[in-house]
Amino acid sequence: MFLNCHSYHSLRYGTISIEDLVRKAVDLNIRTLALTDINTVTGIYDFYKLCEENHIKPIVGVDVRIENEQYYICLAKNAKGIAETNRLLTDHNCEGIEIPKTNPSLENTFVIYPLENIPECLLEHEFIGIRENELNLLVRPGLKKLIDKMVILHPVTFNGTEEYELHKILRAIDGNTLISKLTENDHCQNTEIFVDKKKLLSSYKLYPQIIENTKYLVNSCSFDFDFSTPKNKQHFTDSRENDFKLLKELAYEGLERRYPDGDADAKARVEKELGVIDQLNFCGYFLITWDIIQYSNRMGFMHVGRGSGANSIVSYCIGITDICPLELDLYFERFLNLNRKTPPDFDIDWSWQTRDTILEYIFKRYGKDHVAFCGTNVEFKYKSIFREVGKAFGLPKEELDILAGKPMDQHDDNSVFRAVHHYGKMLEKYPNQRSMHSCGILISEEPITHYSALEMPPKGFPIVQFDMHTAEAIGLEKFDILSQRGLGTIKDTVDLIREKRGITVDIKDTTLSKNEARCNEFLSIGKTIGCFYIESPAMRGLLRRLKCENYKVLVAASSIIRPGVAQSGMMREYIFRHNNPDKFEYFHEVFEKELGETYGIMVYQEDVIKIALHFGGLSAPDGDVLRRAMSGKGRSLSALQKVKDHFFESCKELGHPEQLSKEVYRQIESFAGYSFCKAHSASYAVESYQSLYLKVYYPIEFMVCAINNGGGFYRTEVYVHEAKMSGATICNPCVNLSELQTTVYGTDVYLGLMHIEKLEGRIAQMIPEERKNNGDYTSLENFVKRIPIGIETLQILIFIGAFRFTGKQKHELLIEARFLMAGNRPDNRQLTLLEEPKKEYQLPNIQRDPFEDAFDEIEILGFPVSFSPFDLLQTRYRGTVMAKDLTKFHKSQVKMLAYLISRKHVPTKRGAMFFGTWIDAKGDYFDTAHFPNCLEEYPFQGGGCYLLLGTVEVDFHFPTITIHKMAKMPFIPDPRYSMDQYRSLETARLLQEDVSMTQRKPYPQEQEIGLPRQRMR
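C-alpha cells predicted for DNA-directed DNA polymerase (1017 residues):
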C-alpha cells in the first residue's frame, strides 16, 4: 500500500534512513514496500537487501520531480523498468533532454500521477494516485470516471512531528530561504508518515477498485537483483579465451623485456599468476588496464601503478606497474587468490596535468553508455549544519559565525540556539549532496544505466548515484584513476632538461634512478625538498633518523610514517632497532622468520597478515577480513570482532603467553585503515627516487618544475629558495624573458608571470604569446600598444621590475606610463604602420633605497627576491649556532636566528603544541618543538624571522631544538613609506608561513612504547 516512500537520499527532503524505513515497516507488519526517492536510485540496493533480510517484498522506483513539481511516480515492474527510468533521468541530467510531464516512454514501468497532473490520455500502465484526504473529491464527475485507473497513494517522508519540522528545515535549506517563508508547495503534507495498514485500507473501503488496482501494481512489480555476478566489462577482446591468449602473449613479451638474462623463478611466477587470473576470469580487467597504460605511453605520459596490484609479476611484465615483486618478496595472494570473487584493484596515478586526457580516452574508448565515475554522498558537516539550520531560522550573519566558529558550549543558551543544536544534531550523517568520487571509474558490460541514473557534476564527467561501497556490493569494481603533482614535476623536468640541455634522461629506467650512490647520500641527510612523498619535515626527519641510504629502507620508511604505524609506537621501535641491530631480541621465532627484514616490526599490511596466520593461527579467510579492515574497506565491526575472538582462542591453543598475544593484537589493531601494503610503499619509493635523481643531478631544472607544478608540501617561496641553494640566480618576472610559468636560461631562473597575484590570467598568458608571435618588446610604449592593459596592472609590472630591460628607473617608467595611458582606452591602442617618434622627457635622477625593491617583491610576489629576509632585519645578529652544526650541541642550549618556513599543529592533553621548520641565515633547514607551556608565553606571530632560544635534542642523527623562548624580529621600516610609520611596518606582515593542522596524537617516546625487546617465553 505504501508506493511512494522517501528516504533521506531524497536530498534535503526525506528524513528517514533506509534502515529506519525498513525497520518501521517491520514494526507495522508491512509485507510490501516501495522506495521511490526523488530523482534518484541511490538507496535501492541497500533497500533491496534489507527488505530481503526482513522478508518484505521490495519495490523500487523514482519520484520524478522538476523544480519541486511532482510529475509522476515510476515503479519498476522488473529490472528493465528501473533501467528505463534511469535512462529517462540520465538523458535529462546529462543531455539536457526535457522530461515529458505526461506519458513518458516507459514499457516496463508503472506510472502513477498525482491529481494535479492527470494526463489527457492514460496509457495501460499508467494510474492516478489518490490520497486519503482527496477521496472526497471523487464525487466530481471528471474524477469519478477515472476511479478504475486509481491506486492508493500514501507517501511516506518523515517519522513523527519532530521529523516533520526537520523536513521543513531541509526544505528551507534547499530553497535558501526561511522556514517561515515556506509555502505549502515547498514542503510535504503533514500526513506523510507510516500509518496502520488496516486503518489505511478501511478509508478506501467504498472504493474496492482502487484497492484492487493497488494490489495489482504491487503483485506485478518484481525487482530481483543478483549481487553475486560481476557487472564490470567482461572481455577486452571478443571472448574469454582470446583475452587469456592476448594476456599470456603480452606477459611473456614483457618477461623477456624485464628479465633479459632469463629468470626461472620469474617465469614460474608468471605461469602461476596467469593460471589464477584465468580461473577467476579477470583477464579482461588486466587488459583494460593495460590498454589505458598503452594509450598513456603513446601520449608520452608518466604513470605509477601502485597499491596491491604491484604484487603481481604479470602486471609488472605488461607495464601496469614498475615494481619487481621478486626483488621485494611481494606475494601475489595479497592481490589475488582463488577465494576472491571481485576483480582486483589497480590504483594508477597520472600527473594532474594529464589525468583528464586519460579520462577522456576511457570514456571514448569504452563508450559513454558504459563508463561513469563513482558517486559519493557528501554529508552535512558540523560547522555547515549549524550555519545552514541557523540561516533557516533567520539568524543574522554575526550569530551564524558564532554557531559555525565556536564550540557548542560557548554558544548562547537561548531557545533559538537550542533549536539549532537540536535539529543540527539530528542532521548529522544525513547526506547533503552528491559529488564525484575522487578517482573511481566504473566500466560496465551492460549499459551503466541498467544500475543507476547518471548525473553531471560541474567537473564534466558523469557519475552514478551511489558510492563505491554500493558499486562493489552490486559487482561493479572501480578502476582508480588518480592524479598527483609529483609525476608532473618529474615529466616536466625531463622535458626541460631535453629542451635546455639537449640531454635525454630515461627516468622510467629504474636501474638508473634507484640505489644510486649520490642520491642515497642526499636521502640519508634528508635533502629531499621537492621530492614526491619524502619532502615533509616529518619524512625528512625520519630519513635522517634512519640514515636511510638504500631503496629497501626507503620502502619501509614510506610505510612507517603512516599514522597507524607511528602512533602504535612501531615507527619509534623500528628506528631504534635499525640503529641498534644488536640490542634487541626477536620476542618470538615467528617474528624473526617472517619479519626479519623489518627487525620483527610489523610495517606493512602483509606483515600483519603473516603474523595473524603464522603466529595467531588464523585461517586465510580471517586474514582477508583483517586485510579489508586495514585498507578501510571492511565495514563489518562484527566480522572483525569474530576474527579477534578467534585470534585469542587460537593463540591460547598454540601456547602463546597472554601478555604477548595482547601486545601482538594491539599492534595489529593499530594498523586499521592506515598502513600501506608493501607494494604500495615500494611504488611510492620508486617515484621518490626518480624525483630525487633529478634533484641531485639537475637541481635547477627540477626546482623550476616543482614550482610550476604547484610545489607540494610547501609554498612557492620555499622552492624558489631551494633553487637558489642549488646555484640558481633568481630573477624577477620580465616581459621579454619570462613565460607564464617559471623558466630557466643556464642558471638564471626567471619567475613566471603566473606568480604575480594581481596580474589577470588572460594578460599573463598574452604577454609571452604576443612576444613569441611578434618579437621582443622594445620599450614601455611598444608594450602598451601591443597588450590591452590598464594602468593599475601596468604599475604592478613596473614595480616588480618587468621593464628593467629599458634601463630606466621605476619612477621614470611610472611617469611615462601615466603619459602613455592618459585618455587612452586599452582597446584603442594599437601599433601603426608609421610610428611617430616618441617624446623624450628629461626627469630628475632620484636616489632609490636598494631595499625598496625587496618590499615591492613582498607586496607583489609574497616573498623577497632581491634580498633575503635576513637582509631586511634591523639587527645584524645571526645567532650563535648554524643549522649544519646542531648535532654537535646535544643537550646544549643554543640561540639561533631563523626564518619561519612551516609549523605543524598537534593537540595534546595539555594543549596545542607545534613542530616548526626554519632556515638559518646560510639557508639550511632545521626543526623545532614548541610545547604548550612555552607557546602560552611565546606564541607564533605569523611569517618572518625569529630569535630562538632552546635546547638541542639529537635523536638518532636528527637534531630538534625544544624552544624555551622566542621573539619575532622587526624588519627595517619600509623605505617606500618613510613618512607613514604604520604603512612602513605593514608590508612585513605579508610574509607567509605554511601551517598544517592535525588531530593526531603526538608520536610516543621510546619509554612510552613498552614493546618487548627480549624473547618472551
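The domain at 714-861 is CATH 1.10.150 (DNA polymerase; domain 1).
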